[in-house]
Design a protein that fits this description.
The chain is an all-beta fold. It has no helices and eleven strands.
């Protein structure tokens, strides 16, 4: 069982930065791949960043590549998303998610590969 709680969302001006954090409970966090998703009003929830259980490999959606960085600290049971050069198009509810399988090789890019989800944190970017 893994419980996830996101924090760090808020209102920021275009061009600004935010860092989201996801705190996990449970002893298997360090064995699970993690991902950050976002859902804008009227749109589907999309994967924007993913990281393997070891942190060795990351994956980014084209829309955030070069601006966002995902990282994890398995000793602290946390995963972070550093977001730079934010634009109004980044406005959404951001969710962290933990993969279903333990020690799965590679990043997880499909939402149905994630079993545990946080409640989400709102990020609003003003123009």
């Amino acid at each position: 069982q893994v419980q996830l709680v996101e924090s760090g969302g808020g209102l920021v001006q275009a061009g600004g930065s935010l860092t989201l954090s996801c705190a996990a409970s449970g002893r298997t966090f360090g064995l699970r791949a993690m991902g950050w998703f976002r859902q804008a009003p009227g749109k589907e929830r999309d994967l924007i960043a993913a990281i393997t259980w070891s942190g060795a490999t990351t994956h980014y959606a084209d829309s955030v590549k070069g601006r966002f960085t995902i990282s994890r600290d398995n000793a602290k049971n946390t995963v972070a998303l550093q977001m730079n050069s934010l634009t109004p198009e980044d406005t959404a509810v951001y969710y962290c998610a933990a993969g279903s399988a333990l020690l799965r090789a590679g990043v997880l890019t499909a939402s149905n590969e994630y079993h545990y989800w946080g409640q989400g944190t709102q990020v609003t970017v003003s123009s």
